[in-house]
Amino acid sequence: MSVLGGIGGVLRRFSCMRQKRQGKPPLSLWGVTDEGGVLAVGGMPCTRLARDYGTPLLVVDAAALLRRVQDVQAVLNEVLPGAMLTYSYKTNCIPGILRMLHNAGVGAEVISPYEYWLSESLGVDGGQVVYNGVDKSRESIAGAVARGTLVNIDSRDEIDVVLAEAREQRRTARVGLRLALNRSAQFGLDPEGGDLAHVVRNCLDAPDHADLMALHFNVTSNARHSGYHTRCLSRALDVMSWLAREHGVRIRLLDVGGGFGVETSKNMSGVEYGLYRLFGVQPGAAWMDPFQDFRLYLRDLADTLRAFCTQNGLPVPGVCIEPGRLLTSKAELLLTQVKAVKERPGAEPFAITDAGRLSQAFPCDFEWHEAFLASDLRRPPSRPYTVTGRVCTRSDWLYRGKLLPELASGDVLAVMDAGAYFSSYAMNFAFPRAAVVAVEDGTARVLRRREDFRHLVGMDDVALADVTWDGGER
Ligand SMILES: *Cc1c(COP(=O)(O)O)cnc(C)c1O
């Protein structure tokens, strides 16, 4: 252990030197600004947001979100004109955010009956929804068939349910096949196994009730380069060509999933993750790593698609993409307040905050995220901290070995790229979940109120005494 401890100490010192050398990235990467030394979102100082709405607090920059959507739409128009753009609901399933995306012309990609219900409740046209997922209820499939939603079949028996619904409703279901291109994952139909052929046969046997029109795959996450995605596309194209050749099926929509990365955050490599968990060694900063711009990424996919279709004499199908992170990651940050700082001899100081990995920032477990001292951007970096949450377990840390300025109670930290998978994974372990606000035209608007204590017992069948306070402050 002492040898290991020694190695850990050396690696941590190295990591600290590296963080010092790298410094901080420009705030413009996220579109946030420095207003007199305080980090501001859409011109609104984070200290004011923290004071007015409390912490932990998720803050959406509405203008940045809209700009991002428009940028992605412009790239699509240029590289793959006519392509369908849907947003992966599970990435950030806050109705106020989803509404902004839909108002900007983005469709919905849903993976559960709840998400399907939400898309319908938000008034999204059924034809602008793609229904994926491994556990679709009969009721939600009925809705999808009735509303003309593309249902991507995930397993052998699911097609029977879709066909039964279509027969009952005397409609033709829009059907896609989700391909399992990565055998170690549980999703989709294995192109080499019998299930795919079985589903195809069932569709072809019921031409009045199934329109087999799409292929779907989703194979990556936070990808920084198109390489793997493009190779998977080639395998999907082989399936498309097999369907045309063997069954005379013409695939009209190729849904290449999501997984497009952002330059400001990254998945830790296996080695980085191991060193981080074992020794608290900070991984390298995401913005220092090579990153392929989305335009070039999409162009690689488009070139592969067109070249394949030309070579094989097939018509070029329409394309659908289902990004989550690409659209929302950078447009949202998490504000958390330092509640206490503890010095321990021979150890990194602890900064206890109200946003740990377990309750509020789960992606920080396996992704690298930048952090700023939002309440004082001018305070110089000082030493590495272990930043923890407020749940009483050692595993509720937010950062380890993170070089930060000298911290004190009351300081406000901003965790960047909180717009993908933060609110989705948040839990109410001992504390209610955070509020979500959007800053727009210089004013803040609550998208989701902070949970109060009554909300936490809202589903319980128990008589409670009348208590005059319920944690719903602010
Ligand atoms: C999660 C998911 C996405 C979006 O993934 P991102 O990495 O956030 O882009 C798209 N499609 C499906 C089927 C998914 O499960």
TrEMBL record:
Its cofactor is pyridoxal 5'-phosphate. It comes from the Bacteria. PROSITE patterns: CNMP_BINDING_3, ODR_DC_2_2. PANTHER family: DIAMINOPIMELATE DECARBOXYLASE (PTHR43727), GROUP IV DECARBOXYLASE (PTHR43727:SF2). Residues 412-458 form the Cyclic nucleotide-binding domain. This is Diaminopimelate decarboxylase. It comes from Nitratidesulfovibrio liaohensis. The keyword Transport does not apply. Keywords: Pyridoxal phosphate. Pfam families: Orn_Arg_deC_N.
